[in-house]
């Protein structure tokens, strides 16, 4: 229970920080300075107003000074990453699971913000996936080569966003071929359902949120992060390798 609470606080605090990172990067502002403030009246937030989840509920989603609405997305991100961190505590490799969930939250927030992802974000996710990947180096090299070729072709033709391609390829590294195909399928279904529900949706659809949700649904349903799977095998592999040295 205490472990879950700690995980939730850690996850929601991290999500709160990621929201600040995404907002400030878009404005070319420093991530550290100035202190957190209301975007409308510029009032610096009190310490208690920085507490994730609880501050939003206490303030009823409004600034304590000017009553301007606080974006709901931050609250949703805090609850989501907090819950995902609780989920990660049940994984054989909680740290790997938590890192993947954090990356996915950052990428989702970026995509929802303006669909312009920075190169370091997608590359960082692919590098993380390569480190976590239980696959042999040949496969990892193959995926990176494939990424270079596809993104180069797509750069000219613009079939879909390059970030979507890199994230899907990172999924191949983390969960393997079949699971990734299931994730893509579920993400497409979710996106279609979204479009059906919002018939007046006229904007370009950000696809990374659907990929992230599909990734979480699939890995949870298939128990990817639990004992019978790769995280477990990977840990055993690393331990046995250490002993063989
Ligand atoms: Zn305000």
Helix content: 55-70%
- Give the class from helix and strand content and strand pairing: mainly alpha
Number of helices: 10
Most strands sheet: none
The shape is: globular
Fill in the keyword field for this structure.
245 residues; mainly alpha; 2 domains; 10 helices; 69% helix; globular; binds zinc ion; Prepilin_pept_A24_N; Prepilin peptidase; Prepilin_peptidase/N-MTase; aspartic-type endopeptidase activity; membrane
Write the layout of secondary structure elements.
Elements: H1 2-26, H2 54-58, H3 72-89, H4 94-114, H5 119-132, H6 137-157, H7 162-175, H8 177-197, H9 208-221, H10 230-244
Helix pairs in contact: 1-3, 1-4, 3-4, 4-5, 4-9, 5-7, 6-7, 7-8, 7-9, 8-9
The chain binds zinc ion (ZN).
Structure notes:
The protein has 245 residues and is mostly helical. The chain has two domains: 1-89, no CATH class; 93-245, no CATH class. It has helices at 2-26, 54-58, 72-89, 94-114, 119-132, 137-157, 162-175, 177-197, 208-221, 230-244. Helix 5 (119-132) runs parallel beside helix 7 and helix 6 runs antiparallel to helix 7. The longest helix is centred in the first third of the chain and has 25 residues, at 2-26. Residues 9-89 form the Prepilin peptidase A24 N-terminal domain.
What is the structure about, briefly put?
The protein is mainly α and 245 residues long. Helices cover 69% and strands 0% of the residues.
């Amino acid at each position: 229970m205490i472990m879950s609470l700690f995980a939730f606080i850690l996850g929601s605090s991290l999500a709160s920080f990621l929201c600040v990172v995404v907002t400030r990067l878009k404005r070319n502002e420093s991530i550290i300075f100035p202190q957190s403030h209301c975007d409308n009246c510029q009032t610096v937030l009190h310490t208690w107003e920085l507490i994730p989840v609880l501050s939003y509920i206490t303030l009823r989603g409004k600034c304590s000074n000017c009553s301007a609405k606080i974006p709901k997305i931050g609250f949703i991100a805090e609850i989501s990453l907090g819950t995902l961190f609780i989920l990660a505590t049940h994984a054989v490799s909680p740290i790997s699971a938590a890192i993947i969930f954090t990356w996915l939250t950052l990428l989702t927030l970026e995509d929802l913000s303006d669909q312009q992802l920075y190169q370091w974000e997608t590359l960082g996710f692919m590098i993380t996936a390569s480190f976590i990947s239980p696959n042999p180096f040949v496969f990892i090299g193959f995926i990176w080569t494939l990424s270079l070729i596809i993104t180069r072709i797509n750069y000219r033709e613009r079939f879909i966003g390059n970030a979507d391609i890199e994230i899907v390829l990172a999924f191949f590294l983390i969960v393997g071929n079949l699971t990734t195909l299931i994730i893509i399928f579920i993400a497409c279904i979710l996106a279609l359902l979204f479009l059906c529900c919002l018939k007046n949706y006229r904007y370009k659809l950000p696809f990374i949120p659907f990929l992230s949700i599909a990734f979480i649904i699939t890995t949870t349903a298939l128990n990817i992060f639990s004992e019978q799977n790769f995280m477990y095998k990977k840990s055993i592999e690393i331990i046995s390798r250490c002993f063989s040295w």
